[in-house]
Amino acid sequence: MNLLKRLGCRRASVLGLLAATVLVTPGTATGAPDDVRAGTLGAQAAQSGRYFGAAVAAGKLGDGTYTGILDREFNSVTAENEMKWDATEPSRGSFTFSRADQIAQRAQARGQRLRGHTLVWHSQLPGWVNSIRDANTLRGVMNNHITTVMNRYKGRIHSWDVVNEAFADGGSGQMRGSVFRDVLGTGFVEQAFRTARSADPAAKLCYNDYNIENWSDAKTQGVYRMVRDFKSRGVPIDCVGLQAHFGAGGPPGSFQTTLSNFAALGVDVQITELDIAQAPPTAYANTVRACMNVARCTGITVWGIRDSDSWRSGENPLLFDRSGNKKPAYNATLTAMGGTPTTTPTRSGTPAGSNGATNAAALPGRYAWSSSGTLISPKSDATHNIAGIKDPTVVRYNGKYHVFASTAGSSGYNLVYLNFSDWSQAGSATHHYLDRSAIGKGYRAAPQVFYYAPQRLWYLVYQTGNASYSTNPDISNPNGWSAPRHFYSSMPDIIKQNIGDGHWVDMWVICDSANCYLFSSDDNGHLYRSQTTVGQFPNGFTNTVIAARDSKYAMFEASNVYKVQGSNQYLLLVEAIGSDGRRYFRSWTSNSLAGSWTQLAASESNPFARANNVSFPSGSWTRDISHGEMIRAGHDQTLTIPACRLQYLYQGLNPSAGGNYDLLPWRLGLLTQTNSTC
Ligand code: 9MR
């Protein structure tokens, strides 16, 4: 967004494009679409802020059918065996990570998240550990193993199974015998979690087990008591993994109760190793539905991809058959998450070439969209007289859309927050004015929100004249934002040298696994980029360069940069002003955030989004497709978007409105891609 009022100039007169002031009656919310219905497991799970993962074997990564399905369907990956103790520390102090790295690097390159499995387990444990009899030695060995493996993947694993299967089957409700329990006592679990927290404070620490799905089972109760005790004493634990290796009957009737009861202790729950004998569709649907019904059930992992990949392959327990075709359980699973199974051929996942999976997910070069009517309009109150709501940023998290936007009016710019569960409710959501939080009054505009997973903190990035941010542990608490801090001590020299009569606007942060980048625009044809490391963020932004340049109106402002899910592509959008004076978006791609950008759909006749490729079934309420944001596949700092059926929340305005730019009646609407081929 630009800020012309401060500078006393008027966009209308500068461009001679906007007519004299007209009183505008905003359109009402008509034709609001439903929530996105995705066609793949990962994309659909992401609609509710969850992940859908698979256990992956390094030895199968050369199989194109296997990786084709993996990259198309899953947005989280667990190494099936490669991160276990026998694989990572086969002899004392000698660590081997090559196969685990293979899985981790591949997943990261494709924007898939990683689950860590597992640090302390009595099985797949090398003989040298099993034969230790001295408690100090074993404690040292265990702590060193946890620390070394976690350090290797620090900041890259969303959840770690710190201790696996420590409880006994049967009616005792006690821990099973193992070298850890026998030599260290049952306190080894607590010790392991404390060590794990110090090693990687950003990872969720999970206790993982099987046969703890039925609430009344003694084993479930034993684990529940342990977690309750940990929470009451402040022992660090963040989640319980329920493996969910089910017989053909599927989950027990109490499964959802078990998930809720664990969650009520203040931990997340995850279904970590799902497979069901014979894969009855109803059994899968019941399992998935139980997770969807529990807010703190944050994700589901199936234990393998095709039946032939399963540890219990004789029982055909997975979602894809031996040839990689979707089984009925697949459709049941997708539907249970609210997705729509496609009717495309069931034979799936065979890539065209060695990089076929990447190409399959890559973005198309032409776009067509359908727009909603106006979904969100300003809501003035006694102390806020608001003319326009602008520059939206949005994440889907915990079953809700969370939208932050600029408010513009005669008293200047500030920020507003609202949330709602689906677009049909956007218009009736309460507007929370963030000038009442520590963000404070004064010029704050063009927000961008994301969850910075390494710090477990939400960030709101915005412009104040500098590039600024606030943080909040809880996105849904409008009063939880911290006071503004600046990313830079002052405007970087390269911007001073190139900004001309433009304005420094629209700061945007995106991170890959190593670095975070801060992009900004200057209303003068330049896109700037600074960088820092993931570890240093939000400090240390330096090396500011011109990442892209064009003429002033061809590369104006409101740039967005995203990671495309399931590919190694990044997408850059920049708002331009067309020959008709109307706002529209051009697009570029790159395979690196610090790389150069190649045009994708970047002209007026083939735009990313412009009035000429948008249909308005509920009325053409705007000719401008201006500053906004894509609906993401997740909510973290990687800003990952789906490759299919894109949606873009944008600002538009009544075409006959004009006058002072800062008082224009901007409203928010949603574009949905109509020419997606996947
Ligand atoms: O799927 C894994 C299989 O390839 C291994 O041979 C087996 C060895 O114990 O472990 C399997 O995975 C197990 C997981 O790590 C923990 N929960 C039970 C899983 C199935 O046995």
From TrEMBL:
Residues 45-336 form the GH10 domain. Residues 1-31 form the signal peptide. Its EC number is 3.2.1.8. It is found in: Secreted. InterPro entries: GH, GH10_AS, GH10_dom, GH62_arabinosidase, Glyco_hydro_beta-prop_sf. One of its GO terms (cellular component) is extracellular region. It comes from the Bacteria. It catalyses: Endohydrolysis of (1->4)-beta-D-xylosidic linkages in xylans; Hydrolysis of terminal non-reducing alpha-L-arabinofuranoside residues in alpha-L-arabinosides. It holds the Pfam family Glyco_hydro_62. The active site is at 273 (nucleophile). The keyword Signal applies. One of its GO terms (molecular function) is alpha-L-arabinofuranosidase activity. Gene3D superfamilies: Glycosidases, Glycosyl hydrolase domain, family 43. Its main location: secreted. GO terms for biological process: L-arabinose metabolic process; xylan catabolic process. Keywords: Carbohydrate metabolism, Glycosidase, Hydrolase, Polysaccharide degradation, Secreted, Signal, Xylan degradation. It is an enzyme of class 3 (hydrolase). Belongs to the glycosyl hydrolase 10 (cellulase F) family. This is Beta-xylanase. It comes from Streptomyces paradoxus.
